[in-house]
Amino acid sequence: MPLTDEFSPFSFGWGIKVRPYGRSSGVGSSGREGGKCVVGCIFAPYFDSEQGAAHFAAVHKVFGASNVSKLLLHIPVHKRLDAVVTICYEAQARLRDPVYGCVAHIFALQQQVG
Question: Considering all CA atoms of the chain, what is the largest pairwise distance in Å, rounded to the nearest integer?
Fold first, then answer.
């Protein structure tokens, strides 16, 4: 049974739908392949280093740049860095394990504890 927008596990409050990994369009953050952020880009403060480019690529592939930018606009500026760090972590975890994502890491830690 295909996922619909109403019952998708990738839906959040605010009407933002997050695409499952593997269905991104492949464009850069500015809308051009491999482009730089334009002035006022919401991603610029958080994805500015060489490592930032890799993190942005993961976030874009898993969630879509448009969806993440809409999400960040709903978060107060002083909390956005924490949100970006969390989104990056989850995107990288989803690329490693598309089914469980970061929960796989939690399960592994639980196994170590007992």
Answer: 50
Q: Domain range spanning residue 81?
A: 13-21+40-113
Reported as a single tens digit per residue, the pLDDT across 84-111 is: 999 999 999 999 999 999 999 999 999 9
Say if residues 83 and 75 touch (Cβ distance below 8 Å): yes
pTM for the structure as a whole:
0.66
Interatomic CA distance for residues 78 and 110, integer angstroms: 32
Q: Is residue 7 part of a domain?
A: no
Q: If you count them, how many residues does the chain have? A: 114
Nearest Cα neighbor of 28 from 60, 73, 74 is 60
Q: Is residue 34 included in any domain, yes or no?
A: no
Query: How far, in Å, CA of 31 to CA of 29, rounded?
Result: 6
